[in-house]
Amino acid sequence: MIETNEQRLARLKLKANKLPKTPGVYIMRNSAGEIIYVGKAKALKNRVTQYFGSGSGHNEKVKKMVSLVQDFDFVLCDSEFEALILENSLIKQNQPKYNILLKDDKGYHYIKITADKWRKITTSKDTSDRRAQYIGPYYSGYVVKDTVDEAIKIFRLPDCNRSFDKPSKPCLNFHIGRCEAPCRGKIALEEYNESINSAISFIKNGLDDDTVKKLESKMLEAAENLNFEYAAKLRDRINAIKKLSEKQKVVMCTYPSQDVFSVVFGADLCCVGVLIFRNSRLTDKKVFFVDGNYTKDELYSEFLCRYYADEKDFPRRILLDCDISESSLIAELIGNASGRKVEILHPERGEQKSLVDMCSQNAAENLALRLNRTGSQTAVLSSLQELLGLEVTPEVIEAYDISNTAGDENVAGMVVFSGGKPDKKHYKHFKIKGFSGQDDYRSMAEVLDRRFSEYEKGTDEGFSRLPDLILLDGASGQISAVLPVMKAHNINVPIFGMVKDGKHRTRAIATTGEDIEIKGNRRLFAFITTIQDEVHRFAISYHRKKRSQKMLGSTLTEIAGVGDKTAAALIKHFRTISAIKSANIDELSAVNGVKVSTAQNIVNYFADK
Is residue 575 part of a domain? Predict the structure, then answer.
């Protein structure tokens, strides 16, 4: 007999209810017996039973994983820390599909000096050219590329594929002082090789004082020999090295050994950025793309264990962009692996906070490239998610505003932002129909009720998807008025208000409790202000249009034979009063419901004006 999904979940839940409330590791298996997920728990029974309940609180990734679970195993442990070590070991051995897996496909990197007559310095991922000279290996491609770029810049070497045996016209790099342009045929091979050798020495020895002293000695010698052109070249090299030294001070920190992490979410993907500091200097940068169906706490709890599983160069401390619940456990695990104490910190001010911010900016830019959007859009959506405590990144945001004049022509506007940008094809207008007079709370409730009713019908493409976040122009009163409507439609979308100050400027985000101030975050403040201004503009422009049409209609109803319906038909057809004034009897009578006699009355009315 084939087991139904309900029977499968009931069986697994019954088994989970028999587990003890002690620390341990649980192992989820699919129908083929393959391990698809490994997790740890302080209380096994409490954690495992959550998977096989209603599932309403699970994200899509967990729902998919649970749908494949046919059975599970468990291992009891003496402590939560012991469970963490075992979990890490099992994940490393089995590489389960639904755990965070960090696959390093970068390999080793080398600096290559070609064996050509006119040697060139490039980057390479292999050593297959046996004639060439290689410096390395390096683990970081970032370090290799940056080193080669700086060497080429300082020693004004070519980075093109031109042949230098025949003179040719130099490129832009020569004209802006970035290259000596051996392609011109005015540089001897001996002089060129000296520059290459100096660059190789620079790559091997770095920014040491001896390099600068040797160059200064050569510069003075050249000047004494009246070889001023060569002395000037050496002077420029010395200045370039000193500038590079100053540049590197920008990416230095007072603490000698630390790794900095930041997570930026976007759509169903998130980017984990890592900045690596050794000897107080930034030595490497890494980015990892991970499934976005995690909270930061969940992600870091898995990610940090995976990241340091095969690490050889451990930091003294780790900086994160948030506090995590298992920081002490993970710090102990990493500390045991490194053989020394490791701290995990969440800096909130000063130099260390600025390093976390820099890491976050880098992660946002890398995620933006992957998602084909700007880094600022990615960063602001991630900041909004974190500020409001949202489970998912608010890729689709709907905002609502009410507009009327003392209750007259009561209308509403709905604007949509997708990926941080206005999505105007999904904007909607509403005319309040349920009552007359001014009541913003009832108006907002009616608008959301109609919006969700359209979603349930599924006939209008603009209403066919639910947003990730709803923002109302107003405070907690508007939110309270709408919550019963959402409950009645069984809609579970986070909803907040946008609060303005006495000068009608965006001030904060409203909740049913205390307001959340946003002025401290300039990028987020600008984004919310943009949304609030846009929905206000859209709503009030519709209100003004309705008022204008009403005033036009009242003018037309003064004419004999023109009632409300005829006036509306004329407005719809001609749109403006000037167009109606200039129309002749034939054009007027062509409008549905307008008799020839009425058309004559309209012509006569405006002729007398």
Answer: yes
Name the strand (E) or helix (H) holding 112. Answer: strand 109-113
Query: Are 166 and 284 members of one domain?
Result: no
**Class of residue 381 by CB neighbours under 10 A (exposed 0-12, middle 13-18, buried 19+):** buried
Please say which residue of 215, 250, 285 terminates a domain: 250
Residue 379 inside a domain? The answer is yes
Q: Compute the CA torsion angle 168, 173, 178, 183 (nearest 10 deg).
A: -10
Tell me how many domains the chain contains.
5
CA–chain centroid gap for 581, Å, is: 55
Three-state DSSP state, 284:
strand
Clarify whether residues 427 and 344 are in a common domain: no
- Give the CB-side neighbour count of residue 390, counting CA atoms within 13 A: 27
Domain that holds residue 586: 557-607
Which of 568, 565, 562 lies closest to 546 in space, CA to CA?
568
At 397, phi and psi to the nearest 5? -120, 130
Q: Counting beta carbons within 10 angstroms of the beta carbon of residue 275, is it exposed (0 to 12), middle (13 to 18) or buried (19 or more)?
A: buried
Within the chain, which residues score under 70 in pLDDT? 1, 54-57, 103-108, 137-143, 205-212, 237, 240-253, 267, 405-408, 503-504, 547-555, 557, 608-609
Q: Are residues 368 and 404 in the same domain?
A: no
User: Residue 136 and residue 73: Cα distance in Å, rounded?
Assistant: 46
Of 250, 268, 298, the position where a domain reaches its end is 250
What separation in angstroms does the CA of 519 have from each of 43, 523, 527, 554? 42, 9, 11, 46
Burial of 498 (0-12, 13-18, 19+ CB in 10 A): buried
Q: What is the CATH number of the domain that holds 524?
A: 3.30.420.340
Helix (H, G, I), strand (E, B) or coil at 403: strand
User: Token pair 């759509």 is at which residue?
Assistant: 267
The answer on 243 and 131 residing in a single domain is yes
What is the three-class DSSP state of 133? strand
Beta bridge partners of 509: 498, 516
Radius of gyration (Cα) for the chain, nearest Å? Answer: 34
268 and 381 share a domain?
Answer: yes
Kindly state whether residues 526 and 454 are assigned to the same domain: yes
Interatomic CA distance for residues 36 and 50, integer angstroms: 17
Q: Cα(203)–Cα(113) distance, rounded to whole angstroms?
A: 11
For the record, the structure tokens of 301 come out as 């709890």
Q: Which two tokens stand for residue 287?
A: 């980015």
Listing DSSP states for 15-39 in one string gives: HHHTS-SS-EEEEEE-TTS-EEEEE
The reply to whether 30 and 148 lie within a common domain is no
* pTM as predicted: 0.57
CA distance 237 to 566: 84
Angle CA 564–569–572, to nearest 5: 120
Which secondary structure element, helix H or strand E, spans residue 274, and what is its range? Answer: strand 269-278
**Tens-place pLDDT, residues 382-405:** 888 888 888 888 989 999 998 876
Task: Residue 197: name the closest of 176, 210, 178, 211 by CA.
Answer: 211
pLDDT tens-digit profile of 79-106?
888 888 888 888 888 889 888 877 544 5
Q: Can the peptide bond before residue 182 be classed as cis, meaning omega within 30 degrees of 0? A: no
Strands 317-319, 343-345: parallel, antiparallel or unpaired by DSSP? parallel
Smallest CA-to-CA distance from 515 within 527, 503, 506, 502 is with 506
